[in-house]
Write a structure and sequence with these properties.
The chain is mainly α and 124 residues long. The protein contains six helices and no strands.
């Protein structure tokens, strides 16, 4: 394999870069956006649609999922473990618990799950 072929393979994998925007172009775009927000009669409707789209994407947990999360947290399970168990992203779990006023603080070591004491532990 030649070095030119390697360079072309790397270039093929890399997405094309946009040319940098000049200061004048940025200023012109900024002024146009400010004028749209300030004067265009379509802006309030556009803003309402943007807000509605953000609300529609909001994920909420069902009551039984919240109860299961609380039960698993009492057992000392981590958010990573819980997210795998119920199939919900750990960020969503944390956000939803905070919204409900439930603590997401670190579980104290005395309440976390402990290793078993069976005879098989002797093989560790």
């Amino acid at each position: 394999m030649s070095s030119t072929q390697t360079v072309t393979d790397q270039q093929a994998r890399r997405p094309p870069r946009r040319p940098p925007t000049s200061t004048d172009q940025r200023k012109k775009l900024s002024d146009a956006q400010r004028a749209y927000v300030a004067t265009d009669p379509r802006w309030p409707e556009h803003r309402r649609k943007l807000a509605a789209a953000q609300e529609a994407r909001r994920f909420t947990l069902m009551e039984n999922e919240v109860a299961l999360i609380i039960k698993l947290r009492r057992k000392g399970r981590t958010f990573s473990y819980i997210s795998e168990a119920i199939g919900v992203c750990r960020d969503e779990i944390g956000r939803e618990l905070k919204a409900l006023g439930i603590t997401t603080a670190h579980v104290k070591s005395d309440r976390r799950a402990r290793r078993g004491r069976g005879f098989w532990r002797s093989f560790d």
